[in-house]
Sequence to fold (68 residues):
Amino acid sequence: MNFDLRVPIGILFTLFGTILVVLGLTTSQELYQASLGINVNLDWGLALLVFGLVMLGFVFRSNRKAHR
Fold:
């Protein structure tokens, strides 16, 4: 049995990051006045999305090396 914890972590962070990026792109700027005009949803969504994709990239890279 070959269970790699990076797969569900990568999927989870990619999904949450995608949701936050979409939310950050579609909400109005008035919502972010309390946070000094910083679009927190977009910033953290991008961070989560990048982290999730890096985790999934590690999985695909390790699978490619295992099949050689």
User: Anything to note?
Assistant: The two ends are 19 Å apart (CA to CA).
